[in-house]
């Protein structure tokens, strides 16, 4: 990975590379101090460089109090120095407060900036086509370690670490794979898309799509990548081979209002990207070219070859679907005929028929359902979906035939992640928020009841389960600085192994994430 893409710790939140001279006092204001001591790493306009962007949207996961601590003490194992011996508490608070202000002139990031940011250390086709390791390349896990901004590649059979490499600061939305599982794409909060060749364990291309990016999506044939931005208000399309820029879509409604993009999703059966918009009562669908012959990859995911029957929108053009409310988080049925969206304010949701564009149902899902973490399975001859809630201690289970809530399971706290596998009788959900965050519930998919509650480590946050390729083992995170990934037997629920890691977040299995079927999230 190029030197410029090696953030350390909190990625030098406010640091300067050199500290040999006395810094200016804050008598000249926090902006002057920033220019003298911070801009070399974080950019003159706070857009980022070696360190991350220091704009309010990019700092949303860091409280002002935590920012003051970093300014005062620095970050261990990073280039970020502490300023506690040179700035008093009032000056530190003033500097932190300034960082959370919106800049007077809104920053821009357009075609020229995107093109200038692109780096291709290994052009497509230049590296060997065989893996450098003996493990099954379709049963690898990529584990995102947010504590020190690294990712680990684990053998899904032995759980040995094959490789560990630095990542960009604040990866967001989960990595995405090509259908053959060879390449994985990471998206960072700061807008960077990084493509890694898992066969050769090398970064092969990188580009910055925006200033504050929500997530990325990869087309079912692995040929295109779409990025969703909060800042600027845009969707950005890339050729996946070398991350060459193809098109920038300003996200503007028919009335001229612009919008942040909450997320973008790939809809394989439709051959299109679907975008959720934060500030427009619209859903956007953007089709990619359908292949003229089947995609030859792992043999487990079919790509549609028939002409599009659902709409006649030209390739890479926007199809606008007006909706009755602002919709954020999305969940799709397996055929991608319907999208379930959470209404603004967390007071419910609605179901939209993507073929007709019509609303077909309202869902009483108070408490901010985390639909992006929902799962689906067959239950008594009918397909159901289940979702945790971010502000309610419950899991809602919905009949996807008539869109009724058939069960509400009370949990020990609001949850964030829910996972299952087609070969497992269980669904797992954490209770990430609240005093019981060290627990995880196991739900029987037949009885729709919680049958076990585990406490992997008292007092430590338990989060995010991911199954192996066959659904026989699963990994769970102890989401702490001195945390671990815990391996469980998926049938007996017995712990088998712990792998120490620094705040491991998501763990993404290649096989599970390159197919779309029961038990997997979309």
* Total E-strand runs: 32
What sort of overall outline do the alpha carbons produce when their principal axes are compared? globular
- Supply the helix-strand structural class: mainly beta
Gyration radius, in Å: 23 Å
Strand content: 35-45%
For the residues shown, what is the average pLDDT?
87
Give the distance, in angstroms, between the N- and C-terminal Cα atoms: 29 Å
Low-confidence parts, pLDDT < 50 over ≥5 residues? Answer: 1-24, 296-306, 517-522
Number of helices: 6
The main pleated sheet reads as: 4 strands, antiparallel
Strand order of the largest sheet: 3-2-1-32
Helix content: under 10%
Description:
The chain is built from six helices and 32 strands. The chain has a four-stranded antiparallel beta sheet. A four-stranded antiparallel beta sheet has the order 4-5-6-7. A four-stranded antiparallel beta sheet has the order 8-9-10-11, covered by helices on one side. The protein starts with 29 loop residues before the first helix and ends in a 9-residue tail after the last helix. Helix 3 (64-73) packs across helix 4. It is mainly beta and 522 residues long.
Task: Pick out its properties.
522 residues, mainly beta, 32 strands, disordered C terminus
List the helices and strands and how they pair.
Layout (H helix, E strand, L loop, with lengths): L29 H8 L1 H4 L21 H10 L15 H11 L11 H7 L22 E6 L4 E6 L5 E6 L9 E2 L5 E5 L4 E6 L4 E7 L3 E7 L5 E8 L2 E6 L4 E7 L10 E7 L4 E6 L4 E6 L31 E4 L4 E6 L5 E6 L5 E5 L5 E5 L11 E5 L2 E7 L5 E6 L4 E7 L7 E3 L5 E5 L9 E5 L4 E6 L7 E6 L5 E6 L5 E6 L5 E6 L3 E6 H4 L9
Antiparallel strand pairs: 1-2, 1-32, 2-3, 4-5, 5-6, 6-7, 8-9, 9-10, 10-11, 12-13, 13-14, 14-15, 16-17, 17-18, 18-19, 20-21, 21-22, 22-23, 24-25, 25-26, 26-27, 28-29, 29-30, 30-31
């Amino acid at each position: 990975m190029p030197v410029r893409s090696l953030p350390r710790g909190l990625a030098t939140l406010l640091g300067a590379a050199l500290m040999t001279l006395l810094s200016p006092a804050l008598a000249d204001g926090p902006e002057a101090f920033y220019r003298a001591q911070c801009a070399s790493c974080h950019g003159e306009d706070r857009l980022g460089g070696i360190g991350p962007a220091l704009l309010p949207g990019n700092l949303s996961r860091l409280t002002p109090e935590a920012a003051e601590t970093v300014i005062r003490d620095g970050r261990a194992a990073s280039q970020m120095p502490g300023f506690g011996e040179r700035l008093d508490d009032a000056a530190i608070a003033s500097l932190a407060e300034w960082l959370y202000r919106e800049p007077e002139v809104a920053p821009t990031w357009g075609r020229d900036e995107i093109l200038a940011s692109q780096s291709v250390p290994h052009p497509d086709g230049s590296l060997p086509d065989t893996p450098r390791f003996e493990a099954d390349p379709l049963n690898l896990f990529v584990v995102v370690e947010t504590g020190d901004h690294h990712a680990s590649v684990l053998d899904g059979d032995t759980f040995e670490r094959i490789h560990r490499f630095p990542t960009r600061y604040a990866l967001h939305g989960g990595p995405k794979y090509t259908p053959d599982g060879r390449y994985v794409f990471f998206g960072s909060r700061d807008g960077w898309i990084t493509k890694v060749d898992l066969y050769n364990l090398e970064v092969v291309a990188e580009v910055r799509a925006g200033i504050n990016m929500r997530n990325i999506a990869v087309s079912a044939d692995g040929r295109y990548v779409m990025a969703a931005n909060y800042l600027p208000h845009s969707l950005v399309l890339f050729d996946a081979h070398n991350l060459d820029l193809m098109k920038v879509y300003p996200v503007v409604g028919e009335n001229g209002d612009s919008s942040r993009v909450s997320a973008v999703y790939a809809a394989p059966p439709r051959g299109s990207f679907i975008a959720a918009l934060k500030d427009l009562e619209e859903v956007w669908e953007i089709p990619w070219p359908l292949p003229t012959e089947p995609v030859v990859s792992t043999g487990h995911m079919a790509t549609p070859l028939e002409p599009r029957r659902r709409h006649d929108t030209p390739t890479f053009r926007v199809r606008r679907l007006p909706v009755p409310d602002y919709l954020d988080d999305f969940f799709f049925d397996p055929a991608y005929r319907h999208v379930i969206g959470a209404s603004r304010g967390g007071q419910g949701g609605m179901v939209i028929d993507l073929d007709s564009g019509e609303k077909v149902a309202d869902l009483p899902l108070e408490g901010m359902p985390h639909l992006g973490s929902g799962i689906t399975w067959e239950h008594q001859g009918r397909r159901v979906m289940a979702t945790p809630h971010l502000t309610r201690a419950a899991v809602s289970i919905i009949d996807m035939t008539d869109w009724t809530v058939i069960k509400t399971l009370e949990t020990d706290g609001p949850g964030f992640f829910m996972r299952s596998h087609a070969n497992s009788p269980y669904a797992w959900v954490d209770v990430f928020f609240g005093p019981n965050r060290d627990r995880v519930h196991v739900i029987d998919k037949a009885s729709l009841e919680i049958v076990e509650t585990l406490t992997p480590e008292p007092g430590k946050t338990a989060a995010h389960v991911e199954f192996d390729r066959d659904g026989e083992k699963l990994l769970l995170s102890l989401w702490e600085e001195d945390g671990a990934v815990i391996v469980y037997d998926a049938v007996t629920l017995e712990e088998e192994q712990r792998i120490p890691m620094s705040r491991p977040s998501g763990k993404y299995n290649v096989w599970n994430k390159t197919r779309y079927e029961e038990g997997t999230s979309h």
